[in-house]
Amino acid sequence: MNAALQAHGLGKKYGRRWALTDCDLEVPSGHVVGLVGPNGAGKSTLLNLSVGMLSPTTGSVEVLGQPAGTQQAKVGYVAQDTPTYARLSVADHLRLGAHLNPEWDDSLAQQRIQRLRLDPKQRAGKLSGGQRAQLALTLGLAKRPELLILDEPVAALDPLARREFLQDLMEAVAEQELSVVLSSHLVSDVERSCDYLVVLVDSRVQVNGEIDTLLATHHRLTGPRRTAKELPGDQYVVNESHTDRQSSFLIRTDRPILDPSWSVTQLTLEDLVLAYMGREVQSERPVLEVQR
Ligand SMILES: Nc1ncnc2c1ncn2[C@@H]1O[C@H](COP(=O)(O)OP(=O)(O)OP(=O)(O)O)[C@@H](O)[C@H]1O
């Protein structure tokens, strides 16, 4: 199966300013991928390049095995500002969706609009921010894409609407062969809905892999003070902190931790994301990748 997303040396420059530099990434199909990273990391730029809304200054990006922007019917995209046509009604948007998309699922679209209590006659410009986001998400889902790319899709939704949307998304993933890449600042949403994680910091993928595997292979070790050099070679140190007598390491390893002097704790996804986000940018290749 083709990768959902594949970027090589991808870069985008605006005037003299680089928004994304030399980004390498491969995301397999069949996952719900959470793309997280600090403000300005390049997430939106990467997603815009992936759908062909922007053209790269350097490098290349493919979606579903084809150059970005050539698979319009198979790729759904909801941009960060959930664009809609202000003067068109909700019903007009659905008609437009049906007209433009060969796989359009009208009953899904109508049911969703009904459930969300959106008035089909209301112009999109008169909807609230959250309702507009729901309309844009409905268009993305009803298109029945193979890959759905969502840039902070739930940012404008209230907590209940957020939960329902993520539920809808997971149902769509279960029912059809749908891969999803969604960027989010909310680790709890990523935890609830994603099975694959990409942490992007300053254009660099810091960690990339299935969430279950990442959680099973990362641990916090706490014990008598020592240096990272004293740890076994298979223990990759993500971060470390020390007091006079104690050391704490966040490590990644595929092997059992045999040293009985360590107290070993499992990490939450938030611990893991924050650890990679808080690190100095790692630009050395190869990027740390964990896959089954
Ligand atoms: N149109 C533009 N012109 C100039 N610089 C831009 C433009 N769009 C983005 N940038 C810059 O590129 C960098 C990456 O921005 P991008 O929006 O991709 O980050 P992001 O990870 O999506 O951030 P956020 O989490 O805040 O949405 C930032 O430094 C931003 O200021």
TrEMBL record:
Gene3D superfamilies: P-loop containing nucleotide triphosphate hydrolases
Keywords: ATP-binding, Nucleotide-binding, Transport
Matches recorded under InterPro entries: AAA+_ATPase (IPR003593), ABC_transporter-like_ATP-bd (IPR003439), ABC_Transporter_VariousFunc (IPR051782), P-loop_NTPase (IPR027417)
Name of this chain's protein: ABC transporter ATP-binding protein
Keyword Kinase: no
Domain ABC transporter: 5-227
Entry superkingdom: Bacteria
PROSITE patterns associated with the record: ABC_TRANSPORTER_2
Entry keyword Transport: yes
GO molecular function: ATP binding; ATP hydrolysis activity
